[in-house]
Amino acid sequence: QTHAANGSLITIYDPSTLQTLANGTYQRSPFPNNTIPASQINPVSAAAAKYYPAPNLPGNPVTGALNFVYAPEQTVTINKFDVRGDYNLTDKTRLFDRFSQERDTRFTPGAMPGAFAGGGWVWDTFTQEVIDLNHVFSSSTVADLNISGLRAKAIQKGVSYGFNVASLGLPPSFTSVALPYFPQYTMSDVLGTDQAAPANALQTQPRNVFNLEGSVSHQQGKHALKFGIDSRWFHFNED
Prior knowledge:
mainly beta, single chain, six-stranded antiparallel β-sheet
């Protein structure tokens, strides 16, 4: 019952009936009643097709196209704060300490509802502390020491994480090595399953950055001189 835009029935041909005609062209025979027999439908495809949602619109009265609409929301929640303390240790020595943290939660929906159409969550946590010590030696010489540490942790999890891949009837050679996500299918004329990141991941990425900066600034007549060091350590891990 699939029709073209002009109302004509689209004929479904049996691929197993391909034959060569006398003029060298090829021809296949239509399925009886224009219906694919259930015995010729791949059971894995039939199992995967059950996850497609039912139409929620009438669609085109002739072709039936455009019979489903889905407008999900992508959500982002951000919570952050800063705490800072300033201390005058002496008339010439000052110290400040700042602690900051930000927590982000992002949800990216799939193209359709359900686990098979992708989508997932990302949780980010950023924590930083900075300590800065400043000392004035004279009207022309100032020293500064800055120590900071940043901890960033990202967690990704797909909507379909935990899906039983074997339930689709796929062979053990695949299910024994497959990740617990709905498999990705692509089709030429139908929206396929989408398992792009973060949909295809259960991932943790902790990252650390430690920074040590020290400098001495000196004003000599018309010349400004500055000496110092800037050292950074980067740690990146991925699970």
